[in-house]
Structure formats: structure tokens, C-alpha cells
Amino acid sequence: MEPIEVDDQQGKLLDEEAINILLSLAVRKKNANYLPEILSIFAKQASSILEQLQHCQDSMAQISDCHNLLHQLKGSAQTVGARGLAKRCGKYQKQAAIGELRLGEALPEISNLLQASLVAIASYARPHD
Amino acid sequence: MEPSYVVVLDDDKLVAKVLEDMLSLKAFCFERASQLLEAKSELDPFGVFVDIYLNKHECGLDFVPELRRAWPLAPIIVITGDDDEELVSHALAAGAHDFLIKPLRPTDVMARLMARRNELLARSEARQVGFGDIVLDSQYRTLTGPKGQLYVSGRELEILVFLARMDGNPVERNVIRRQVWGNLHVSSNALDRKLFEVRKAIRETSDKLEVKSIYGKGVALQAKNAKSLGVLLEDKEHLLQKMPKKPRDRDTRL
Predict the structure, then answer these.
(1) Looking at B45-204, which runs of residues are DSSP E strands?
(2) 20 to 30 Å CA-CA from B40: which of A55, B49, B127, B166?
(3) Residues B113-122: pLDDT tens digits?
(4) Could you give the 3-state DSSP secondary structure of residue B145?
(5) CA of A127 to nearest chain B CA: how many angstroms apart?
(6) Where are the beta strands (DSSP E) in chain B?
(7) Is B193 on the interface with A (CB under 8 A)?
(8) DSSP readout, A6-45?
(9) 3-class SS of residue B43
(10) Is B121 exposed, middle or buried (0-12, 13-18, 19+ CB in 10 A)?
(11) To probe the interface with B, which of A25, A62, A70, A85 has the most B CB atoms within 10 Å?
């Protein structure tokens, strides 16, 4: 994977409280795979949203479609503790609302942040010695 | 028995999954409001979680009033990813009972759901009266029976509640007048007009009950005939189970 240029300090990229909530649910459900399962759902949903955003770019779709998709991705990112991604989606959502969103620039950044978030969350959740 | 599931109106499946695990209650997830509205008569949830922005440009808040009417005892909690005070006030103005801001926290989710649910139950105890196969709701001013639900005016509802609480016994017209209008001077015609509307409302909601005028005794809400009475008595246990929640605290007769 290519190096990802994001503000990679975990404090900014991740919402540790949100991840800890998911980890506590894993304990409650006695399911060691709980977080990976949640991340897998998140990754699938996020990929689908990115595809739809790509389609928006190609088809010059209505800006409100982009706004809603970015909102949806922001919400999912908040749930899994991908704070950096959620904030970036929020920023682009605001740009979409005033018609200033440049999807050509936004899409690669969102995609990179998504990958970085998934790696960072998995790393955070991994038991440490 | 308390419902054992919640309903989630959200295009993000993660939310339903996480809520289910936080509450240890089954969560039925609907991505589109139209799907939920189609299914609402089949459901009786413990609570409802609604996202503001849905797919296809739907706004979850638009459906809150209809969901409230469908499930008066289920708290409706709006979920948002924005800590925007205006959105929160819009949610409450739309009729939501509470709101949650993502990321969801288990203690927060559970506490708000239980608090709002208990509030609604407490309110309903004072406001619902059941008689035979009808239920009167004084907060929402509704009369609900097997044939449907009607909105009734305040006076008509007071008459109905009063008659229902008399447990089938006839009540003198003067007593009804005093009960409903107090010391206000009201003509006999006014009471007749109200009783006409009350009878019509009963006819439109139940085949088994009617408001009878009993010569020399007054007016009574009773089973239409012996056969109806038998059916109502047989159905009583069934009706109590169907009627929402905490039957022991409700004023349910016949």
C-alpha cells in the first residue's frame, strides 16, 4: 500500500472513546471478532459510498446526492471511531451544501483516509504486550 | 408483555447493529421511510430510533408525527452525527422525544430510551381507558376500536370516558351534564347533540358496543346484545394482552 499522508497521530485520526465502546461491546458479547465484523461492515458501506461518489463525479449528478452520501459516510465513520475521516466528510459535506465541492480532489483524500482509518483502528484494537 | 425489539430508521446498517448490541434488544432496521410505514401496523416496538438524513433525500423528521401516532408508547429518539443545536431543536419540534449524537454511548442510549419509555407509560396510565373492545385516549383524543380509530372532540371524549368508567351502568342525563360541563348552564339539546356524535363514534369503531338510552334510568355504554356481551367477555383476556402495556395499571373494564 502507498504511504498515506494524513495527520496520522492517533489522537486526530481516531476517536478512542468510540473504539473503546465497540471493544466493550465485544467483551459483553464475548466475541473476539466483534470489532473486525463491525469494521468489515463499515468498509463495505464506505466502498459503496465511494463508488457512488465516483459515479456522481462521472455523471455530474446533483450536488445534494453528494451531500447525502458524505453525510452517510460521516455517520458511519463516527460510529467506528474514524474521527479524521468523519471530520473530513463533514468539511466536504459543507462544501457540497454551498456548491463548492471538488470531488476530483476530495475523493482520493477520502479514500486514503478510509484506508488509514481501518489500519489504525485495527492496530489500536490489537492487544499489546 | 413489553415489546422486545426496537425499530431503527437509518440507511446506515451499522447503527442498527450497534444499537442492538448496546440494548440487548433485537433491532429491525429500515433504510427507507416508505418501508417502515408499510410495516408499521405489524409492529409494536419498545422504542424507535430515527436518523435525520436518509437515502433518496428523505428526512427522518418528516415521519416522526406518523410514527408517534402509530406507537404512542414507543419513544422516538432522533440520531444525528451533527452536534448542531438547530437540528436538535428541529427534531424535538417534529415530535421526537429525545435525541442522540454520534458516536453512540451504551449508557446514554439505554438511559434515554428507558427514561422516555417510562415517561410515556406513566402518562398513558392516566390517560387511557378501555371498555369492551374500545380504548379511549384522552391525551391524543382518540377512540380506538376493532373498526378503526377516530379523533373525538374534548366534550365527546369526556362523555365517553365517563360512561366507560361507569362499567355499563346507566347514568342520568343531568349527571352527565354536570360531569362534563360543571355548573355551566347547558341546554338539553346541547347534550343530545353531543350524545348523537358519541353514538356515531361508537358505531364507527365497534360492532359490539352502543350508547343506549334507557327509559327512566339514563344513558349507558353497554354491549349491544347478549351475544356481543358474551364475545366481549370471552375476548377480555385477549384484549388485555393486546392493549398496550401494564394492564394492571390501566382502567380497563367489562
Answers:
(1) 47-51, 76-80, 98-101, 128-131, 134-137, 142-145, 148-151
(2) B127
(3) 999 999 888 7
(4) strand
(5) 22
(6) 5-9, 26-30, 47-51, 76-80, 98-101, 128-131, 134-137, 142-145, 148-151, 209-214, 218-223, 251-253
(7) no
(8) S---HHHH--HHHHHHHHHHHHHTT-TTHHHHHHHHHHHH
(9) coil
(10) middle
(11) A25
State whether B18 and A74 contact (CB < 8 Å). Answer: no
Q: Which chain A residues are closer than 8 Å to B15 by Cβ?
A: 75, 79
> Pseudo-torsion of CA B83, B85, B86, B87, nearest 10°?
40
Mutate to test the interface with B, among A37, A53, A79, A88 (most CBs of B within 10 A): A79
**pLDDT tens, B59-105?**
888 888 888 877 878 899 999 887 777 778 888 888 899 999 988 99
Query: What is the rounded CA–CA span in Å between residue B236 and residue B253?
Result: 9
Cis peptide before B103 (omega within 30 of 0): yes
- What pLDDT, in 10s, does the model give residues A72-104? 999 999 999 999 999 999 999 999 888 888 888
What residues in A contact B82, CB-CB < 8 Å? 90
DSSP state letter for B146: T
Residue B18, C-alpha cell as written in the block: 450497534
Contact residues, B window 119-178, toward A, CB-based 8 Å cutoff: none
